[in-house]
Design brief:
Elements lengths: L1 H10 L4 H10 L3 H5 L7 E18 H5 L7 E2 L15 E17 L5 E17 L18 E10 L2 H10 L4 E3 L4 E6 L7 E7 L8 E8 L10 E10 L4 E14 L8 E4 L4 H6 L3 E3 L3 E7 L9 E8 L2
Parallel strand pairs: 5-6, 5-10
Antiparallel strand pairs: 1-3, 1-14, 1-15, 2-4, 3-4, 4-5, 7-8, 8-9, 9-12, 10-11, 11-14, 11-15, 12-13
Helix pairs in contact: 1-2
């Protein structure tokens, strides 16, 4: 260590500023981390099925999972008002299976992955101190859904790359994700058996099983448009968002009475929910998002700057 510092001091005679910075950063990884440049990517999803729902969880437990400066919404904040609702929050669990995803990075390089899956877990947050996203309802940071991403796993290398370049936290490339839907009656639009599995050692590994109300291309009858932002903040207080404009999504009122989220003992998600097997206790639904054709951007994975 002494020899290294001496060398730095000697070089100061040639370039004092460079030597000083180098000496101060010696053995400190933060100096390098601050120099990492983040970049945006455009994302387009094609023909996606989804299952999504909420599980009521103690707000304090959810607050402990997000960075300082981020405020978790209570059920009261979300319009679900009853005795004790101030102390309760919502854990959101969502899984999608898409025929394709296309990602265009900041250098206009395009990559497409086929037959991909996504599973993400998060909680609704207050966004009053967060910067504006590409897609918003009020030109500032509004959206129909604002969720802090506690875990975002995907089987798509292209999508994982987009999230990583933008600085998204709590992400994993998990090519073993299973998302299978089996039609219980091919002759009618009724129910289908869903099997989702997120393998591995993640603190948010999970499964979703049960019969869902069918939402597929064949059963799509037109739907709603909305904006959803999935948020992240890194250790340098840099904000990232997956800002998504969803067009014409069919979403059923319920995913089905016998749909359960299954978790593993000792994991964070298991401790939050408090059980190995839970129904969606807040809301649930299954949906279908049709494609407008690859190349029609509907999401921006974007680095937004510092937390206010």
């Amino acid at each position: 260590m002494t020899t290294s510092i001496t060398t730095k001091i000697r070089r100061a005679a040639i370039n004092p500023r460079t030597a000083l910075i180098s000496a101060l950063c010696l053995g400190v990884t933060a100096c390098h981390s601050n120099q990492i440049k983040l970049s945006n990517s455009d994302v387009d999803f094609s023909n996606c099925r989804e299952i999504a729902g909420g599980i009521v969880v103690a707000k304090a437990d959810l607050q402990s999972q997000v960075p300082e400066g981020i405020t978790v919404n209570s059920l009261t904040d979300m319009g679900f008002v009853f005795e004790g609702s101030d102390e309760q929050g919502m854990l959101i669990v969502r899984s999608l299976s898409c025929e394709a995803i296309q990602v265009t990075d900041a250098k206009d390089r395009v990559r497409t992955d086929n037959n991909v899956a996504f599973v993400h877990v998060g909680t609704p947050i207050n966004v009053s101190n967060l910067p504006a996203t590409t897609y918003s309802n009020d030109s500032v940071n509004g959206a129909d859904f604002n969720i802090y991403a506690l875990s975002y796993q995907t089987s798509s290398p292209a999508y994982f790359g987009a999230m990583k370049r933008a600085g998204m936290q709590n992400i994993d490339l998990n090519e073993g994700i299973v998302n299978e839907l089996t039609d219980n009656d091919p002759n009618t639009c009724s129910t289908a058996n869903l099997k989702v599995n997120v393998p591995g050692e993640s603190q948010y590994a999970l499964g979703i099983t049960g019969d869902v109300i069918e939402a597929t291309a064949e059963c799509h009858v037109g739907g709603a448009d909305f904006i959803a932002n999935w948020w992240s903040v890194d250790k340098h207080d840099r904000v990232t968002a997956l800002s998504n404009e969803v067009i014409d999504q069919t979403f059923t009122d319920t995913a089905g009475p016998d749909v359960f989220v299954v978790t593993n003992d000792g994991t964070t998600i298991n401790e939050l929910i408090g059980t190995n097997r839970s129904a969606f206790t807040g809301f649930s639904g299954s949906g279908y998002i049709p494609s407008e054709g690859l190349g029609n951007v509907d999401m921006v994975a974007e680095a937004l700057g510092p937390l206010n």
